[in-house]
Write a structure and sequence with these properties.
alpha/beta, 10% strand, elongated
């Protein structure tokens, strides 16, 4: 799939229909994750919107009854006491609901967060491998992750919008019951503010989409600056101030520019606020005049004042929440698009047994979105029990060849065969069960203990203590691991400590490579692929480790290395240049040719 031109801009504007669709999707996703959440929020919206109005109504009746009692109406005193009791009961009910709702919301938030994040992680890890190099997919994932991380806040925000809208509508209805003029005045006063906030909201969304790349670069700089392992180089090369300045420049491009364009809306917002204040004063003056003319009871002043204030507060909340929802709804569409990306298709054929041979048949390859061929007409064979070395300068295509062998990518042209079966037609899971891959930058499972780092080599079978002990010795990792404060059960990260306060321990680069080697030995795969796995280990230890690997003649070993001592015993060596095999043969044969292989390793041969 061709990559999108990296403009960093997305001029999409969400129409009203799209916003409503987005809101409906948020509700649908939430209902699917936790039906209770939707019912709780709906009940909460009605209670928190309507109950205060009912409370205000009885408070107004209380004021009217007190005024009547003051003039000598004996029945009015009893009515006032009854209204006070009802008002207090409503207040207690609202307080009790708030406490209950707070607890339920915490539980619901956990359920929703878990469901949304689980779906996102599963989708990300199930994509075709080429998508991890695709910029459009990366952009979609960034926006989807942003949406997923704040989904419950989006749902809460939508609930607040609904609550504010219900408060506004119920307030308007309550005012219409007093006088239809009051409802019209209030409605006319709030419309300009809503229009202004809609315009500001669109400007915010446009700015957000135009600065995706800016925020990403700033986040990367911040991440690098806070890596303890990077601080030495940052100081040594004098990059600290340079990166701080670059971070500030990117931050200003994003946040300062946003603040500056929002400044243009201050005058309009101030005008809308003044209009709402005038509307409130007019409503109160009108009510006061009606009370003086005995057209309305005294309590109606309190009623109108509270209802108008609540309605305007509802409008303010509605506008505020709505103005910040556009970017969330836009990210929702990105989230949906990401979740609908096709997952890696499971190949139909099962691999029932270990193949006797892996064969590249005139294979060409270029990465998606890039027409430059990284591999050109590659033909080679790897037989069971054979030791094959692949060598070449950096960028010659060695690691790409391995990716095709692993089935992570499919050839642009040509075929990779397992015996006589096209690798593209074989179940990737079946194929990977036979493989052990060890790279120069193998994963460091810093969250786990040293023991677990090794056992993670094979999580599909019960723990084998015999294989574990053999792996420790084969990788020469036992000595330094047993010296850790808690031995093999020590965390290998200084930022994680044990329950008893024993700190984790950071390992050196060579120690991490030995730990990765032990994990590979524990996996005990019949096919082992080694991509510069011992670059941080001394030559003598490397020689001993490889002797142990090569001792088992039933294992197929494919090695990528720049060390002659690692590859000289290979059964066959393939020399790559610019994606092509230019020489092949044993170490002795290639040295005798005095060609590309000889020139590459000449300094190590002397």
């Amino acid at each position: 799939m061709p990559r999108r031109k990296p403009t960093g801009k997305d001029d999409r504007k969400l129409g009203t229909g799209q916003k409503l669709t987005g809101i409906a999707r948020v509700a649908a996703i939430t209902y699917k994750a936790s039906p209770l959440a939707v019912f709780i929020k709906l009940a909460g919206t009605i209670i928190t919107s309507v109950l205060p109005i009912v409370t205000t109504y009885f408070a107004a009746l209380t004021t009217t009854a007190l005024a009547r009692a003051y003039t000598g109406d004996h029945q009015a005193g009893a009515d006032a006491i009854m209204y006070v009791v009802i008002t207090a009961a409503l207040g207690v009910a609202l307080t009790a609901w708030t406490s209950i709702e707070q607890y339920i919301n915490q539980f619901v938030r956990y359920r929703i967060d878990a469901a949304i994040s689980d779906r996102l992680y599963e989708q990300f890890l199930a994509l075709d491998f080429w998508r991890y190099d695709d910029k459009k997919t990366a952009d979609l994932f960034d926006k989807s992750k942003q949406f997923a991380n704040f989904f419950t806040f989006v749902f809460d925000k939508l609930s607040s919008i609904v609550t504010a809208l219900v408060s506004l509508i119920s307030g308007l209805i309550a005012l219409l019951l007093v006088s239809w003029w009051l409802g019209v005045i209030l409605l006319a006063a709030v419309i300009p503010g809503i229009i202004i906030q809609f315009r500001l909201s669109r400007a915010r969304v446009r700015h957000w989409n135009e600065n995706v790349e800016t925020r990403r670069a700033k986040d990367m700089i911040e991440w690098n600056m806070f890596q303890v392992s990077a601080i030495a180089e940052l100081r040594l090369y004098g990059m600290v101030r340079h990166l701080l300045n670059l971070r500030m420049k990117l931050r200003d491009k994003d946040e300062k520019v946003r603040i500056e364009f929002e400044r243009k809306f201050i005058g309009l917002q101030l005008g809308a606020d003044i209009l709402e204040a005038v509307a409130e004063v007019v409503a109160l003056i009108y009510t006061t005049m009606q009370i003086i003319a005995h057209a309305l009871p005294v309590g109606q002043f309190l009623y109108v004042q509270q209802i108008v204030s609540r309605a305007l507060t509802g409008v303010s909340s509605f506008i505020s929440q709505l103005s910040s929802i556009d970017s969330d709804i836009a990210n929702l569409f990105d989230y949906n698009e990401f979740m609908q990306l096709p997952r890696a298709m499971a190949a139909p054929k099962r691999l029932k047994k270990l193949p006797n041979m892996v064969r590249f048949d005139h294979v060409w390859f270029h990465y998606p979105g890039n027409k430059t061929n990284v591999l050109k007409d590659i033909s080679l064979e790897v037989h069971q029990g054979q030791h094959v070395a692949i060598v070449g300068e950096n960028g010659a295509g060695k690691s790409t060849l391995v990716k095709l062998l692993l089935g992570l990518y499919k050839p642009t042209k040509g075929t990779v065969y397992l015996d006589d079966i096209n690798l593209a037609d074989v179940s990737t899971e079946d194929w990977h069960r036979h493989l052990g891959v060890l790279e120069q930058t193998s994963n460091r499972y810093s969250f786990a203990t040293a023991r677990d780092n090794i056992l993670l080599g094979d999580v599909s079978h019960p723990v084998s203590h015999e294989r574990f002990e053999t792996a420790l010795d084969a990788a020469e990792a036992r000595t330094f691991l047993e010296k850790l404060p808690k031995g093999l059960d020590n965390y290998v990260n200084q930022w994680i400590e044990h329950d008893d306060g024993t700190p984790g321990v950071d390992l050196s680069g060579g120690q991490w490579q030995r730990l990765a080697l032990a994990r590979n030995f524990y996996r005990d795969s019949p096919i082992i692929i080694l991509d510069e796995p011992t670059s941080a280990i001394d030559a003598l230890a490397e020689s001993r480790i490889f002797k142990r690997l090569l001792k088992n003649k039933h294992k197929t070993i494919i090695t990528i290395s720049h060390r002659v001592t690692t590859i000289e015993k290979a059964d066959i060596i393939y020399m790559l240049e610019n994606g092509e095999i230019v020489e092949q043969g044993t170490h002795a044969e290639l040295v005798a040719k005095k060609g590309s292989y000889y020139r590459m390793f000449e300094s190590q041969l002397l």
